[in-house]
Specification:
By secondary structure, the chain is an alpha+beta fold. The protein has 5 helices and 5 strands; from the N terminus they run αββααββααβ. The chain has one domain (about 5-115). Strands 1, 2, 3, 4 and 5 form a 5-stranded antiparallel β-sheet that branches. The two termini are about 30 Å apart.
Length: about 120
């Protein structure tokens, strides 16, 4: 990661911390799942770009794990069987159960991502 990118991320994080996070905060969400199964988890962040980056990274990690467990004979088969629904924006209260909002806000404040089951 370049120095400019690191500085930009830190400035974005500071800007977010200065503002207040709450149920009406806009968040960016994507889900990852295998085949016809329910999502493994949802990724929730305050940035569409960050959500997209985490989807790519976590998809790669899930494929590596599946290959290590010998769940698939070939990597291309694993790649064809893992899916995501893209990145979509919502209000936090629309994607999180009311009792989970404090936990989600805490994680979104630092480290900036919340993984929902």
């Amino acid at each position: 990661m370049t120095t400019a990118k690191i500085i930009a991320e830190r400035l974005e994080h500071r800007k977010i911390k200065k503002g207040s996070l709450g149920p009406d905060t806009t968040v960016y969400v994507s889900a990852i799942w295998w085949g016809d199964n329910d999502p493994i988890y949802r990724i929730v962040t305050l940035s569409a770009k960050k959500t997209e980056q985490l989807v790519k990274r976590n998809t790669k990690l899930e494929i590596q794990s599946a290959m290590e467990e010998r769940a698939y004979e070939k990597k291309w088969i694993a790649e064809a069987n893992i899916h995501n629904n893209g990145v979509h924006s919502f209000k936090l209260k629309d994607v999180v159960f009311p009792n989970e909002i404090p936990e989600a806000i805490q994680h979104l404040s630092d480290p900036g991502v919340w993984y929902a089951d």
